[in-house]
Amino acid sequence: MPARIAVLHQGCVPTYRRAFFDRLGQIAEREYVVFHGAAEPGSGVAAAAPPFAFSNVRVANRFWRVLGRTLVYQPVLRRIAGGDFDALVIGHEVKYLANLLLLLYFRLKGKPVLLWGFGKNHDLDAGKRRWLGAQLGRLAAFAQRRMIRSATDFMAYTESGAAHAAASGMRRERIAVLNNTIDIGGEIAAHARAQALDRGELRRKFGLSADAVVLLYVGRLTAAKRVDRLIEAAREVRRSDLPVEVVIVGSGPEEKKLAALADGASWCRFLGPIHATEPLSRVFRASDALVIPGYVGLAVNHAFAHGLPVITCHSPVHSPEIDYVRPEGNGLILPSLDGLADGIRGFARSAELRARLAAGALQTREKLDLQRMVEAFDNSVVRALARSMSPRSGGAHERMA
Questions:
Q1: Residues with Cβ < 8 Å from 384, sequence gap 6 or more?
Q2: Has residue 286 been placed in a domain?
Q3: Would you say residue 398 lies in a domain?
Q4: Cα–Cα distance list, 123 to 13, 103, 126, 219, 364 (Å)
Q5: In-domain check, residue 111
Q6: Secondary structure of 258-302 in HEC code, one letter for each residue
């Protein structure tokens, strides 16, 4: 009979995570059961719609706002505690209250508990800036460190997450780096097809100049992305007689503000939201770099799938995927938003730099393979299960440290 593993992560099944769970569900030797509900309101995460091909249980998530923070309760305690599960995989965020109780329960039963996450919750840092939430922020940070130390294993999104987990007390040999990604196989195939298209013709179709250095933004148009700074920087660079143009793909609350900022300039094109892989690949083909001045997430993976370097600015709130951007190797991480124009200016002036960073982007996408991530995840679970059954760890009851 296969081992049964309960999975609670992000409170829901995000649309971008569906392919991962589909592949995880194909592993016959273990049964992964994903508990999920509605996405957190205001989080920007879109939950995938059932039915699902993998084992799953739908629950009614409950949300409360406390001092500017969201607390989440998932009514799963009875079903998981009484469900004959051999291991538990949970996110490392302390806002999921049921996770904390289940961690304690599984550890008291001597069963493995694997945390899956960034290694550090950036929201804890943001909370410290709110006067009313300062004490709660410090308490949450302490609880998160204790949570990491109480688990048996940690599955980090990236190398920086692994370092954070180790600094919080998790033993390094029990930390796996998954190289968090989405399924970019379809995008890689679309990129290959797009290479056969005439770049000049595509640019004419999008209203772009043939000799321009085209800076692309793809994503939700929110304040955190700082697309306004991209438009301002491009305008400044153009004053240096450098042929820089901007393409913006997406929609969101900042759309009207950004259109007003561009003021109808012919060098700034708004294409609206494009979700289909094939037409989006043509926009990537016509561009020279993906530029996200503000918050960076999985858009990095999309860019590298299409061989585009990433240009962004340093920020403490980037998602872990920022680890994939290697300055001067496959992109640019500029010191601050104030330096964005200078960074773009240097990129626009050097054809050698653009070619080198594009080549680096194609090399990086090779490690962003979804199947590798699935295998790293499953291997980590297998190691934890084997260790819990080892005589050296006390038989089936690996005790809490």
A1: 87, 112, 114, 152, 153, 174
A2: yes
A3: no
A4: 21, 21, 5, 21, 28
A5: yes
A6: HHHHHCCCCCEEEEECCCCHHHHHHHHHCCCEEEECCCCCCHHHH
What is the 3-class SS of 86-122, one letter each residue? CEEEEECCCCEHHHHHHHHHHHHCCCCEEEEECCCCH
Same structural domain for residues 73 and 156? yes
Is the domain of 148 the same as that of 245?
no
70 and 148 assigned to the same domain: yes
Euclidean distance between CA atoms 145 and 108, whole angstroms:
19
15 within some domain: yes
Q: Please, which residues bridge with residue 3 across strands?
A: 30
Contact 89, 8 (CB under 8 A): yes
Cα gap 87→32, rounded to integer Å: 10
**What whole-number distance in Å separates Cα of residue 57 and Cα of residue 40?**
17
Judgement on whether residues 169 and 209 belong to the same structural domain of the protein: no
Tokens representing residue 93 in the block: 């965020």
Number of structural domains, the chain?
Answer: 2
Question: Assign residue 328 a region: left if phi > 0, alpha if psi is -120 to 50, beta otherwise?
Answer: left
Considering the domain architecture, whether residues 68 and 212 belong to the same structural domain is answered as: no
How far CA 136 is from CA of 69, 70, 139, in Å, comes to 9, 12, 5
Pairing verdict, β 289-292 and 331-334:
unpaired
Between CA 282 and CA 278 the distance in angstroms is 7
Q: Do 18 and 152 share a domain, yes or no?
A: yes
Give the residue numbers spanning the domain of 202. 185-367
Look at the pTM and tell me if it is higher than 0.90.
Answer: no
pLDDT by position in tens, the chain (length 401): 899 999 999 999 999 999 999 999 999 999 999 999 999 998 878 899 999 999 999 999 999 988 777 899 999 999 999 999 999 999 988 899 999 999 999 999 999 999 999 876 554 444 444 544 565 667 777 777 889 999 999 999 999 999 999 999 999 999 999 999 999 999 999 999 999 999 999 999 999 999 999 999 999 999 999 999 999 999 999 999 999 999 999 999 999 999 999 999 999 999 999 999 999 999 999 999 999 999 999 999 999 999 999 999 999 889 999 999 999 999 999 999 999 999 999 999 999 999 999 999 999 999 999 999 999 999 999 999 999 887 555 444 454 54
Fill in the amino acid letter for 357. L
Displacement of CA 193 from its chain's centroid (Å): 26
31 and 70 fall within a common domain: yes
Are 258 and 386 contained in the same domain? no
